[in-house]
Structures are given as structure tokens and as C-alpha cells.
Specification:
CATH topology of one domain: Penicillin binding protein transpeptidase fold
Shape: elongated
Strand order of the largest sheet: 5-4-10-9-8
Number of strands: 18
Length: about 675
């Protein structure tokens, strides 16, 4: 009761000393720091919260403004705490006099006289409410705040600083912690509880003292005449959202000073696939882990990113972002091999190719099942993922050509040794799931490279990097969407490829339709073998399930470009009917001897050399003529920094191409 007598005396004092002296006293106020340290928050593409991080002192304080809060909560707050908030200048004399009178009449505290502005003053300075000096300081700061801030700004400070128990500050953090929802979606009962909590935040915590919380909430509802008294009070303190945690961590490391980071991820899809990932490894005793990425191959936006099945220390390496782990891709590079073969005119989907025991200068690969099929179409060889035909085409291309195409696609392949060999075609190179999805995004995008991106603010890259021509990319999509599905899986319209690395260490499945690409990796986080694991059995069903959660209708694969050759084997040109030693069948073909395929070059001038063929020779750089000569050597100006294709055409129209990079 004493403090309210003091308050009454203070009101009388203010009236006695005069307005001018009060104004001078208020104007001389040294205000606390008004900047609010808030939790770094990571948002999805629609502005929904994915993840947040505590501020320096370990508190959850999520930034919020009045327009992001349920209007019913704001009405309750004003009516219950400070109904003349929008009319007073920081101090409400009517409320103070009423509170003092009630205290004198009843002999105890009945209602408070502090305005929301005074409460903000106390919260900003973490000040006392019960002593003369503390109350006077609150009044002074409140009056000063009202002179420099709008009512919305003062309300915003309250919404961000009000205590809600434990390490929770601000209505947004409280709404997620106690109700697992944003404050714009509060029910009347939830809104009333959040109005009542800051008055006694520890004693009214619903997770610890639900009965006390219910009484306080009901008092608010009763005063406001609400009929939400029957609403159940959730007694759980929820963990704040931790959705797409691996990608959120990566975003925070990339921009540690940002208080808000927006990703391209779709929150609902992300949650659905996180559950799928958890289900995919549930019940296994071998610590098998999974990672997934879903991307829009037209825009390059990553829509879902699953670094592991659970972001926890669960024995499966849950804290490791396995989308970035460099692993052997198994057979998933075979489509690139054949696509490059189509692109260079070495093969056609209907070309016959031999699958028989072959020694490639000491390298003698075998098919996974140890069997051989003899002669068959390239289409069938890819659908059955046979090894010998893929290595044969790689030998004709040159492994450097394959590595150069991987880099044009925007990937960062890692070789176990310095020089690439034919084993690259069968997984003898390290690549991450994200890079593999990026490669397939380029194939799905008509052979045009796509740079995957997860920052919503980042502009789409517009690099004209072509992995292969559109017809070659369409042939791959046509072949892969007719690949036999795993038992019990339909997935009509989805082009896909599976892969299993040596020793059953990695199981892969990558698929795409006309709009999206989905990649799945499964294996041990430490790279140890998973006996009996195959991409088709382990990863492919998960990949098709991810597609089903991504969309209800499959987008059709792009139609064939006008220059696509769609004919049977017998109608093909003679050199495309059967794949073999092309140079033995057509001697004296021109071949670029310098620069070699995949070379990295420097300088403003470049020497081009060709062997065999018949002059005169025409040289093209990126499709544009740059030289015509009868000699087998010519100097040209550098085409410029980046990837370039160099082509020589001899007098009989025969050609050879090398892909290089200038730096």
C-alpha cells in the first residue's frame, strides 16, 4: 500500500511544480539503449520460421512487430494492461489515482497503475517496480519515450521484451515455445495466457504450473467477457522450430552478422521430407543414414534440404550435413557419359553396342552381376546400367572430357589421384549429393547448366554453360523415364538413375520430371560398407516417395527438340548403327592434338593443332569461325575467360571438338 501512497504524492508533486519544470526534467532524461538484440532467425521462402538461435545471454528473443501478431491478442493486451494506451503520454494519472485509492480502501494491491510505456521503461533497464526511485525512473523514462517514439514503436518494444518465463522473451518466442505456432495464429485462450504471463512469468509458466496459469488466463478472459474458458492449456514447452537445421547453420556461417536469413526452402515440404528421412532409417540397427535434396531445375532453387535423418547425436552422425559429403557416385554418372556420346555424334540411343569381356589397356571392368549381354542398344545398356558399354563410350570420349563436363555443370569432382582414368565412368571420382543433383538439374534443363541456390535473395546465375545439346539431354530423359522401377513402385513420368558405390558404401537415386529434381543418398556416415545395400533397393523407393510428397501431379518431360533424330537402328547413318572402333572404320578422321580435352589454359593467344583429316581446315570457337588454314597449326586470340568449345572441320566435313577452360 505504501508504494501507491507514494505514487499519489508524486502525482500531486507534479501538479505543484509546474509543467515547464516537468518538461525540462523529462527532456534531460538519459534513455537506455533502445536497440533490441534479437535472435538470428532463418525463414523459409514464404517468411515462415525455420530455425532461430539464442541471443548472446542464451535468451530466445524473436523479432516481432504488431502487424505480425493476432489482433485479438493486441486488443486483449491493451484492454487488460493499459486501456488508455493510445491516449496518455506515458503515464496514466487516472489509473494511478484509481490504484492508489483502491490500495487505501482495500488495504492491499487491487490493480496496477503502470502503463505499457512504463513497463517498457522497466524492461529496457531491468529495473525495480517496488521502490520509490525505481518507480520514479520508470515514469521519467516513459514520458521521455513517448516524446521520441510512436505508439506502435513502444508497443513493438513491449512485444519483444516482455518476459514469459525461463529464457523466453517476447511474444513471438513465447508463442512458439508454449503453443508451437506463430503469434498471428493464436486462439483466444492462448492470447489471454500470453497477456497474463508477463505479470508473473515464472509462477505462471504453463509447463510447470498449469493450474496457476489457468487461473491467471481465466482472470483475463473473465474481465474481457470471453467465452474461451474451456480451452485446454498445453502443458508442454515446445522446442523452437529446428527445420532445415543443416542448411540454416550453413546460411548463418556464410553471413554471421545477419539477424534474418531467408532460404529458398519450402517449410511444409521440408517438414514432410524430414519425416520421410526419419522413417527411411527407423528400425535399422546398422546406423544407416540418409540425405536428400529437392530442387527446381528451372530456377535452381533448393526447395528441401535434408542433411541427415535427425539433427541429433544419435549414433548416425546426425549433426553432419551429408549433402556435402564427398562420396563415390557409383553408376549415377553413366547418363552423363552417354549424353556426351550423343552430343558428339559418337552414339545414338538405338546404336548397337557390345557388352562382352573387354580389357581396356589393363583395366578390365565387369558388370555388377558378373554377366554379359552381348550386343544390345545403347538405350538398353543405360537402362540396365551395364558397365562395359559405359566404359567403352568413356574411352572414345576421353576421361578428361567427362571431367570437363562435370565442371561445366558446376560441380567440384574430386579425384583419388591426379589424372582421371576410365574408372571415372563407374564412380571412380568423389562427388557430393548436392553436386550430383546439380548435374542432373542441368540434364533436366535441356543440357543447360543450372546453379543450385538456397539463398532467397541471391539472384539466379545466368551463365551460358552447356553440358550437352538439347537433343542429347532429351534422349537421356526419354531413356531414363522408361527405366524399370523397383518392385511395387510406379513413378510414371519420372526419369531416374540409381547407383551403388564399390563395396556397397553408398546407395544413390536421382530423378527428375519436367520441373523438379530429387536426389537421395543412403549409407553409413563414416563411409563403411552396408552389406547388401543397392541404390535400386534402398535409395530409389525413398526418392519416389519424396517425389510423391513434393507434388501430386508429375510435370511432363520436355518435348523433343526439332533437331532430335528419332529413328530405329536400321535407319541410322552407317557409323551410328554399331559402336566400335570408329577410327578403324573411318580412317584419317581429323583429331585436335592441342589443346587436349579438358585443358585449363592461360594467356591472350592460343595455338591450335590438328592431326589427320584433309585440309583446308576451318576452326570454330564456341560455334563461331575463327580461322581457315591448309596447315595443321594456327594461332588465334583467346576466346575469353571461362569454358569454351573448340572445333575443327576438315575439307570433307568431318570434325573433332575439344572442351577447355581459360583462366
Amino acid at each position: 500500500m505504501t508504494r501507491w501512497l507514494i505514487t499519489l504524492a508524486m502525482c500531486l508533486w507534479v501538479g505543484a511544480i509546474g509543467r515547464d519544470r516537468v518538461d525540462a526534467w523529462v527532456d534531460a532524461t538519459v534513455l537506455p539503449d533502445l536497440a533490441t538484440e534479437v535472435s538470428t532467425q532463418v525463414l523459409d521462402r514464404n517468411g515462415d520460421l525455420l530455425r532461430a538461435y539464442t541471443v548472446a545471454d542464451g535468451r530466445w528473443r524473436l523479432p516481432v512487430t504488431p502487424d505480425a501478431v493476432d489482433p485479438a491478442y493486441l486488443r486483449m493486451l491493451i484492454r487488460f494492461e493499459d486501456k488508455r494506451f493510445f491516449r496518455h503520454n506515458g503515464v496514466d494519472p487516472v489509473a494511478m489515482l484509481r490504484a492508489a485509492g483502491q490500495a487505501l480502501w482495500q488495504g492491499k494491491f487491487i490493480s496496477g497503475g503502470s502503463t505499457l510505456t512504463m513497463q517498457v521503461a522497466r524492461l529496457l533497464e531491468d529495473g525495480s517496480t517496488g521502490r520509490w526511485a525505481g518507480k520514479l525512473r520508470q515514469i521519467r523514462v516513459a514520458l521521455a519515450l513517448e516524446r521520441i517514439l510512436t505508439k506502435d514503436q513502444i508497443l513493438t518494444l513491449y512485444l519483444n521484451h516482455a518476459p514469459f518465463g525461463g529464457n523466453i522473451e517476447g511474444v513471438r518466442a513465447a508463442s512458439y515455445a508454449y503453443f508451437d505456432r506463430p503469434p498471428r495464429l493464436l486462439t483466444p485462450g492462448q492470447a489471454a495466457l500470453l497477456v497474463a504471463l508477463p505479470q508473473s512469468p515464472e509462477a505462471r509458466r504453463p509447463d510447470r504450473f498449469p493450474d496457476t496459469a489457468a487461473v491467471a488466463r481465466d482472470r483475463v478472459l473473465a474481465r474481457l467477457g470471453s467465452d474461451a474458458l474451456a480451452e485446454h492449456i498445453d502443458q508442454t514447452r515446445h522446442r523452437l522450430p529446428q527445420i532445415a537445421p543443416h542448411l540454416a547453420d550453413r546460411a548463418r556461417v556464410a553471413d554471421p552478422a545477419a539477424s534474418q536469413l531467408t532460404l529458398t526452402v519450402d517449410r511444409d515440404l521440408q517438414r514432410a521430407l524430414e519425416q520421410l528421412a526419419s522413417d527411411a532409417v527407423a528400425g535399422r540397427s546398422d546406423n544407416v543414414q540418409t540425405a536428400m535434396i529437392v530442387a527446381d531445375h528451372q530456377s535452381g532453387e533448393i526447395l528441401a534440404h535434408i542433411g541427415s535423418s535427425a539433427y541429433s547425436a544419435d549414433g548416425r552422425g546426425g549433426f553432419i550435413d551429408l549433402t556435402q559429403a564427398v562420396r563415390s557416385p557409383g553408376s549415377t554418372l553413366k547418363p552423363l557419359v552417354y549424353g556426351l556420346g550423343f552430343d558428339r555424334g559418337l552414339i545414338h540411343p538405338e546404336t548397337l553396342i557390345a557388352d562382352r569381356p573387354t580389357d581396356f589397356d589393363g583395366y578390365a571392368p565387369q558388370n555388377f552381376d558378373g554377366l554379359y549381354r552381348g550386343e544390345l542398344r545403347v538405350r538398353t545398356a543405360l537402362q540396365q546400367s551395364l558397365n562395359i558399354p559405359a566404359v567403352s563410350v568413356t574411352q572414345a570420349l576421353g576421361p578428361y572430357h567427362l571431367m570437363a563436363a562435370l565442371r561445366r555443370a558446376g560441380t567440384d569432382p574430386q579425384l583419388p589421384s591426379g589424372a582421371p582414368g576410365l574408372a571415372v565412368a563407374l564412380g571412380g571420382v568423389g562427388i557430393s549429393l548436392q553436386d550430383l543433383v546439380q548435374l542432373y538439374a542441368g540434364i533436366a534443363n535441356g543440357g543447360q547448366a543450372v546453379d543450385l541456390r538456397w539463398r532467397a535473395q541471391a539472384p539466379a546465375h545466368d551463365h551460358a554453360r552447356r553440358i550437352m545439346n538439347r537433343a542429347a539431354a532429351w534422349h537421356l530423359a526419354d531413356i531414363l523415364q522408361n527405366t524399370p522401377r523397383p518392385l511395387g513402385v510406379k513413378g510414371t513420368g519420372i526419369a531416374f538413375k540409381t547407383g551403388t558405390s564399390y563395396g556397397h558404401r553408398d546407395a544413390w537415386a536421382i530423378g527428375f520430371d519436367g520441373r523438379h529434381v530429387v536426389g537421395v543418398w543412403m549409407g553409413q556416415p563414416d563411409g563403411t560398407p552396408v552389406p547388401g545395400a543397392f541404390g535400386g533397393d534402398l535409395a530409389a523407393p525413398v526418392m519416389f516417395a519424396a517425389f510423391a510428397r513434393t507434388k501430386s501431379v508429375i510435370d511432363p518431360i520436355m518435348p523433343p527438340p526439332p533437331d532430335t533424330l528419332i529413328i530405329g537402328t536400321a535407319e541410322l547413318p552407317a557409323h551410328l548403327q554399331y559402336f566400335g572402333n570408329t577410327r578403324a572404320l573411318q580412317p584419317n578422321l581429323p583429331a585436335i592434338s592441342f589443346p587436349p580435352e579438358g585443358a585449363i589454359l592461360e594467356g591472350e593467344r592460343l595455338t591450335l593443332k590438328v592431326r589427320d583429316g584433309t585440309g583446308p581446315y576451318v576452326w570454330l570457337a564456341n560455334g563461331q569461325p575463327v580461322a581457315r588454314t591448309h596447315r595443321n597449326q594456327v594461332d588465334i586470340a583467346s576466346p575469353g575467360v571461362g569454358f569454351s568449345s573448340l572445333t575443327v572441320i576438315d575439307a570433307h566435313g568431318r570434325s573433332d571438338t575439344a572442351h577447355v577452360r581459360f583462366q
